[in-house]
Specification:
This protein is α+β, with helices and mostly antiparallel strands. It has 13 helices and 10 strands. It has 2 domains: about 120 residues, Arc Repressor Mutant, subunit A (Orthogonal Bundle); about 200 residues, Endonuclease, Chain A. The strands form 2 sheets. An 8-stranded mixed sheet has the order 3-9-8-7-4-5-6-10, sandwiched between helices. The protein has a two-stranded antiparallel ribbon with strand order 1-2.
Length: about 350
């Protein structure tokens, strides 16, 4: 509903008096001063205003209450006092007074709202940084004295699996740490690719080395899947990744020439999240105390594949076709376009 079709009372609620009972009292007093002045031709005094308020509200209103509410309207300029030093003060208001007062209220209200938004944003950012997994460990440690990390933790469903990755790996990664991630099958991750990859991008921006290794046959024989992924706007994500690759060498995507057997994410050689089932997507957190050999083997295997893989930003149109993305697809166009950031800079050098 447009402002011109809204009742004045409804619009005033946006920025005037929102404490219990005060809004209606202020609105009533403003109306009384206008009505008395209009009917008598003279500005009313406090006694006239109070008596009229009693007629409207009954004896539930006191002089003290009316005086306090009237003073607030005077303080903000909506109502003016004629002859401030007279024994019987007179009160008057008009369009100019109301406009001036409401402008002051509007400015104050907007300032208060902006301050509140900033406080909420700060609280939101603080909350986002909280790692529930770490808190859970602290709670257990406080009450049991044990500092042992859960050796195995399972999650089912794309969102819960991603939360497990964020809480136990990404959020705990420090500058200089290495996060290794493989993508063997795209199906479980086709929706919301950018939002999930953004957490890895943010980690790279704070100094974590992110290595993303995709299977060479990721889209091969998956034309419909490739088409669905191509419909997503991946430009901003690729732009950020290639800039991090070029400027900070912190985030790199490579395409494996050899076969990758499973999806996983690990941090250094400390913790591993292994995808153990695709439908529904299920992942397990494995730590060194439960299976250090597995983690070491995963890291060794990953590094061997990584060293022989082709960087995404160096892919040619023919490479992309081999990868299962047609040379005319939107994803291919985005990759070739965004990778030129690196190619053009290298040429200039």
């Amino acid at each position: 509903m447009s402002d011109e079709h809204r009742e004045p009372q409804e619009q005033l609620k946006l920025f005037v008096f929102n404490q219990d009972g005060e809004y209606s009292t202020h609105w009533m007093l403003l109306g009384i001063v206008l009505e008395l002045y209009h009917s008598r031709g003279n500005p009313p005094d406090f006694q006239s205003i109070y008596e009229t308020a009693v007629q409207k509200r009954g004896h539930t209103v006191s002089k003290t209450w009316i005086h306090r509410m009237l003073k607030k309207l005077v303080d903000i300029g909506i109502i003016r006092v004629i002859d401030e030093h007279a024994y019987r003060k007179k009160y008057i208001t008009d369009v100019d007074s109301i406009t001036t007062g409401l402008e002051q209220l509007k400015i104050k209200r907007l300032t208060d709202m902006s301050d509140k938004i900033r406080r909420l944003q700060t609280e939101k950012e603080d909350l986002e940084r909280i790692n529930p997994y770490v808190i859970a460990q602290q709670i257990v440690s406080t009450h049991t004295g044990s500092t042992k990390v859960n050796s195995s933790l399972f999650a089912t469903g794309v969102e819960d699996v991603h939360k497990l990755i964020v809480y136990t790996l990404i959020n705990m990664a420090q500058p200089g740490d290495i996060i290794r991630a493989t993508v063997v099958r795209m199906n479980p991750f086709e929706r919301g690719v950018y939002d999930r990859t953004k957490d890895f991008i943010d980690a790279a921006k704070r100094g974590v080395n992110v290595r993303y290794l995709a299977a060479g046959n990721l889209f091969r024989g998956e034309e419909e899947l490739a088409a669905r992924v191509a419909q997503q706007d991946m430009g901003p994500m690729l732009q950020e990744i290639f800039e991090l690759t070029h400027k900070q060498n912190q985030f790199e995507v490579r395409i494996a020439r050899d076969i990758i057997t499973y999806n996983h994410v690990c941090i250094n050689n400390e913790r591993l999240i292994l995808m153990v089932n695709e439908d529904p997507l299920t992942a397990a957190l494995i730590t060194r105390d439960i299976n250090s050999d597995m983690i070491d083997n995963v890291v060794t295997s990953f590094d061997a594949l990584w060293n022989g893989a082709r960087p995404l930003h160096q892919m040619s149109p023919a490479d992309l076709v081999e990868f299962g993305l047609g040379d005319s697809s939107r994803v291919s166009s985005e990759i070739l376009s965004k990778s030129s950031i690196i190619t053009n800079d290298d040429r200039q050098k």
